[in-house]
């Protein structure tokens, strides 16, 4: 009965998520990912050609990367706050429910590990001279290790298991180190054998506790997991589950003082104030700028750096455009004696300020990463030209569609 209940809840959850994912995986996102992955892949391949063979440090990099990758992915119980009341009478049957939750939760990490191990294989070939044919063996080994980690997450959902969970996680971590190390420096088959042994121990020999469920802990973990998903989706579209909270941020008041307090700057002041004191758009701009800056700091090819910089400028501008309608549902803004055109003009000024600032940051980074002054000058010129083209060509069309 509880397995059927989980299936029904899973269908509702997937239907709910599909409403948002179509906004995430849109044409713009696909285009950006295509250029970004292609550029980074080419840079990665060129970097591997410069490494000495064997590259001893590469094995340790892979070890650290794979151990970190196993921490990705949480047990999806799909529990809701109301379950504390309505499902409490079914606690004796919750073991079957959690088994289904564990089976469902193991598939997304498989896809993630498939991509991470696939991206790591060229470095493995260079570092430890293991042929690419062992790729399926590595993926299966990592998946078995991840499933065991998910079982420890399920164990945490029961009362009085904190000490047992600590012991199990220590054993699991030692098994992870042994499996990955042996697969890299001895034989992939030995690593797979060790991973299979610990998988049998965790999944088949570790019995389900007889204690009561920690309902509050279980519901809180699920809410935290969903909140992380919603925060990612919120980068692309508004999510009702994410409520923006205004914060004082007195130390940033100077960014608003330069705006003259005159009638024509009403919306300019409102937009800047939302950016400074609201976490949604200001945080989005900051995160994307920092991520792009970190990526550009490691790219030394001028044309790859130019493409990545322009893609992030476009992404930042595209994601900030909805700020135009941030005050649409506030009654007072409709009572202001200002023309509707003023909000559009103010938005153009705000985006121009932010995007040219981003272009300047990217240009400064190019001073330290690019080999010649000519390359730096060409990239800086390209950043500013692309920003100008975005503001003059794309932005007016986009704003016209949003405000016909």
TrEMBL record:
Pfam families: EcsB
InterPro entries xrefs: EcsB_ABC
Domain of life: Bacteria
Signal peptide extent: none
Keywords in alphabetical order: Membrane, Transmembrane, Transmembrane helix
Presence of the UniProt keyword Transmembrane helix in the record: yes
A GO-annotated cellular component: membrane
Bilayer-spanning residue ranges: 20-45, 57-76, 104-125, 131-148, 169-186, 306-329, 350-374, 380-397
The protein's name in its UniProt record: ABC transporter EcsB
Source organism per UniProt: Candidatus Enterococcus testudinis
Lineage: Bacteria, Bacillati, Bacillota, Bacilli, Lactobacillales
């Amino acid at each position: 009965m509880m397995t059927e209940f989980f299936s029904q809840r899973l269908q509702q959850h997937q239907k709910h998520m599909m409403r948002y994912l179509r906004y995430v995986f849109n044409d713009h996102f696909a285009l950006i990912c295509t250029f970004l992955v292609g550029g980074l892949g080419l840079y990665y391949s060129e970097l591997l050609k410069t490494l000495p063979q064997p590259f001893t440090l590469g094995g340790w990099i892979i070890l650290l990367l794979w151990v970190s990758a196993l921490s990705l992915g949480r047990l999806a119980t799909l529990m809701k706050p109301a379950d504390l009341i309505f499902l409490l009478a079914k606690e004796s049957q919750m073991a079957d429910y959690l088994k289904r939750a564990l089976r469902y939760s193991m598939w997304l990490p498989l896809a993630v590990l498939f991509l991470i191990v696939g991206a790591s294989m060229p470095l493995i070939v260079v570092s430890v001279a293991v042929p690419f044919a062992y790729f399926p063996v590595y993926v299966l080994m990592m998946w078995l290790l991840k499933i065991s980690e998910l079982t420890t997450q399920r164990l945490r959902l029961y009362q009085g298991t904190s000490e047992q969970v600590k012991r199990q996680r220590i054993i699991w971590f030692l098994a992870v180190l042994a499996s990955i190390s042996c697969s890299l420096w001895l034989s992939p088959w030995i690593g797979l054998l060790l991973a299979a042994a610990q998988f049998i121990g965790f999944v088949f020999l570790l019995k389900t506790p007889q204690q009561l469920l920690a309902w509050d802990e279980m519901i809180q973990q699920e809410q935290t997991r969903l909140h992380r998903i919603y925060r990612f989706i919120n980068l692309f579209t508004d999510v009702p589950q994410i409520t923006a909270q205004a914060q004082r941020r007195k130390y940033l008041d100077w960014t608003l003082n330069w705006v003259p307090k005159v009638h024509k700057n009403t919306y300019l002041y409102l937009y800047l104030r939302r950016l400074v004191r609201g976490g949604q758009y200001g945080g989005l701009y900051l995160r994307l700028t920092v991520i792009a800056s970190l990526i550009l700091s490691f790219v030394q090819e001028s044309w790859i750096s130019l493409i990545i910089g322009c893609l992030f400028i476009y992404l930042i501008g595209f994601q900030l455009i909805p700020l135009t309608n941030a005050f649409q549902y506030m009654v007072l803004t409709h009572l202001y004696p200002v023309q509707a055109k003023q909000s559009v003009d103010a938005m153009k000024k705000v985006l121009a300020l932010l995007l040219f600032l981003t272009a300047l940051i990217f240009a400064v980074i190019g001073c330290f990463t690019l080999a010649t002054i000519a390359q730096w000058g060409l990239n800086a010129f390209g950043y500013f030209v692309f920003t100008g083209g975005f503001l003059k060509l794309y932005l007016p069309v986009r704003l016209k569609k949003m405000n016909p």
